[in-house]
């Protein structure tokens, strides 16, 4: 299950990378990427403050079972910073619960009031700077992805497959790893690429042919109706216009209608 979880993670990550190439979501994802860097910087500061509060709490309240291990104290301070705390934990203190309540209130103020607003201000500032550059961020993302999506003439076939045909790539990895000659690698890669795309090409071809066969009778009737309309207009054309030599003879239009009525379906099928 862990292996499947890793595969699912990379599949959705790949989906996000594809969204990054769109003009609608690309700039937003680029802004989020920059924000992730700001968040990591903030987490570095926050971790130091959590370690500070946890160390102080361990020394002051080490007699309590909940504060007897540093790992539990660290998690407790993390929960306190998010608003999950219980002041009744300090009721068993011999010196009274006042000191514990002060430390808890101090932790809540530092985390919820100071640091939370601090990270919101950082992210808002980053968004304000980059939102006006959304078009530039989009083109920057496109340009940065061009080398990533270039096909490798030696090993590109290993990544072009779609599920479930990409399972064949795992079987072909030993073959690619054992071949060192460049020309052989290119030939193997070219043949394997065609093999990976063959099922998709066959499926799309069958769908295309089936769709055209369904529409063929409609196209035949539409063409017959159009030719009848042209013939009726030809019959209604004054004789003076017919004799100037610029219009097709009525007999040619009628012959065209007859030929298409007889051979139209085979012609459309071949087309």
Summarize the structure.
With about 270 residues, this protein is mainly alpha-helical. The chain is about 75% helix and about 0% strand.
What key phrases describe this protein's structure?
mainly alpha, elongated, 271 residues
Strand content: under 5%
The domain tally reads: 2
Largest sheet: none
Contiguous low-pLDDT stretches (5 residues minimum) are none
Using the CA coordinates, give the radius of gyration: 36 Å
First-last Cα distance:
51 Å
Q: Give the overall pLDDT as a whole number.
A: 82
Helix count, DSSP H or I runs of 4 or more residues? 9
Number of strands: 0
Order of helices and strands: HHHHHHHHH
Q: What's the helical proportion of residues?
A: over 70%
Given the helix and strand composition, which structural class is it? mainly alpha
| Overall geometry | elongated
Molecular structure report:
There is one protein chain. The protein is an all-alpha fold. The protein has 2 domains: about 1-145, no CATH class; about 165-270, no CATH class. Helix content is about 75%, strand content about 0%. It has helices at about 1-20, 25-60, 70-80, 100-130, 135-145, 165-180, 180-235, 240, 250-270. Helix 2 crosses helix 3 (about 70-80) and helix 2 (about 25-60) runs antiparallel to helix 4 (about 100-130). The mean pLDDT is about 80.
SSE topology:
Blueprint: H1 2-19, H2 26-60, H3 70-81, H4 98-131, H5 134-145, H6 167-178, H7 182-235, H8 239-242, H9 250-270
